[in-house]
């Protein structure tokens, strides 16, 4: 290493930095942290110095932090920060120094290395207590996230005698370089912006398509639906090629200037000359040119980045969202394409084996049909469905039919599509393009040769989407009125946060009032791809959907096929016999109807066996006030089953699995987990002889359920990850701070504040949240800690309110929205839920702050209103809006 030594510097009495030359350059920080019993001031000073010197290191360097950090990191930290901390920790719990080290890692994009390799405990501890018995892992080696995969192994050794109570810790490093990107074929694309922006071209396009269609119809005397549709798409494609033309692939601009290219040639010539004629003069000339080339490359790269940032600025000002996100991905280096060539058994991407019991498929139709329009499809319905399509969406197998063609191609195209839809609706015969989808496999975790580790995203014919949207518009409102309120997925006016909030309030109240609660979070195997289609159509009839409409839906599902798009190549067709159609607007609603049927039956059978079903949220008061119970909370296939006792939770899961199997769904036992506030006494909920895992916390719909503190820690970690991906934007001196903050709110705060409406923000959590935002603002402004600029000055510069004030106003807006909903909806009933008097008892001692009290104090901390007063006020929008505007941050000490 001495041959590559560059320089060293003393940062403080506890920190030293050493720099080495190389490609890439390497910086090693040696640190000795204060022990656990030192004062907070001393610890803060150390980590402030450490963070500042870390952020000063160029981001492309290999950065390693090694030393006695006196920090114990436990398995609890891996649960919250899996990106920063591995799962092979020596300790169970994290101490204060450990939390400080983790915060430093998040702020500086550093990773723990020891915790990523499975070693026996004997190879993990690094320090022996003077008593000769207690051991700890307090010496750590950390590396910046960019080079994490270069670490091959880390462990402690006894083989070197140090005459110390510490052991030597060694890391094996092997630099990993990124593989070159491969060229991939692309489907034909057309510049639809020309058609969208030019009214003259739209009129010309309309006439040209009509003329070409009439010619094709005269040539082909067979006028069945397939021929008509083939002529329809051929006339559109020919017209598109003639009037619009293919999009020319823009060549990537070479960011290296002509000066740099000339220097490269001169440098190579000088290098060759030195090898042929070794001399001191030739070597010196070669090194001088090499240095000039490096400087020129760096200047060109900076200019290229500034040009991209200027384009980003213009795109955001012009509200071009697609261009904006494309530039953000390019600047951040986000991967937007995947190598999927190694996938085996592509047909398994959609098809799933079903487990149907033939004896239970006899589902009777409803005695009376729902009031659903069964008449011919009108041009107004077609126009409405087309307007509901989003521009810029990828087309299906008939790649010339796009949302832009249907919207801006002229009235004749719309009329012709209306005729085609009516013929399909009346005859239940579809062109093959309606039944053939393109699957784009998106990889998940695990072995990339296995289809189970891919999510198949389907590209469906846009014309077929329009047809299905018409059917959805007809059935949605009548069908929605009879679906259970427990289901919130894909329903108008319902959101994820509703289920998150209701689940949190119920769990919080059960813990507060010591009410036994068992929640089983159910996961189905490939739920959308497993539904038995025949059973699904029977369920639609069971719910009162008229036979005419069911047959119209069934036509789209008849003889469906798919092809897989892998690296630009299209595979052979294969049959798809199970599941709802992917990429379709109607399919999600069909899916939740099937789930509603499953859960309704599971609830019914569970009730017959055990009496009152589900978790009792309020006891029976009288014959006119029966108990209120919650059996399940659902968002599509994310289902939480609630019960009061272990035995009933066991029966509840068995009944749910049984009813789900009747429609083709199978519970994934390894991913299904259970949570309770009771002592399990080694009891385990079982399904098919396999144990369901007990967990202390669970991420439901993206939020940690048990406490606000844990959820904020997880979301903060994810927000830091998103923040550092865009470091080129934050550190740019050409982008205005207002634009940086707009990007920050969209890319980082949206991650941090997901589910914040249901948080209870204490004094400590307020400091945590505001500290995160302030740190980000300082980085955007280029402020260093040595600049000694106060936070008040930062906020005066950016003209933004504290983050917690934004959150608390958002919470009040949400509560007002919930309390104005129908009284029979879950979110209204459980927005400010607390068990009534006599239902459960609090623990002795100071009670935790619950959500209703928290909201009351947000409204008026001096004289908090009652729940009844809050409900009454929320109904008046104007009064509630005044309360939201007047809200200021409140500090609450207890969660």
Keywords, please?
Deoxyribonuclease I, Chain A, 26 strands, single chain, about 45% helix, Endo/exonu/phosph_ase_sf, RT_dom, about 900 residues, disordered C terminus, DNA/RNA_pol_sf
Write the layout of secondary structure elements.
Layout: E1 5-10, E2 15-20, E3 26-32, H1 40-55, E4 62-68, H2 75-80, H3 96-108, E5 110-112, E6 127-128, E7 135-136, E8 139-144, E9 151-157, E10 168-173, H4 192-197, H5 199-219, H6 225-243, H7 258-276, H8 280-317, H9 321-332, H10 379-387, H11 403-408, H12 411-427, E11 436-443, E12 454-459, H13 462-480, H14 496-512, E13 518-522, H15 527-530, H16 533-542, H17 547-557, E14 561-566, E15 569-570, E16 574-575, H18 587-610, E17 615-618, E18 628-630, E19 632-635, E20 638-643, H19 646-661, E21 673-676, E22 686-687, E23 690-691, E24 693-694, E25 699-700, E26 703-704, H20 708-725, H21 727-730, H22 737-752, H23 763-781, H24 791-798, H25 803-819, H26 826-829, H27 851-859, H28 867-875, H29 877-886
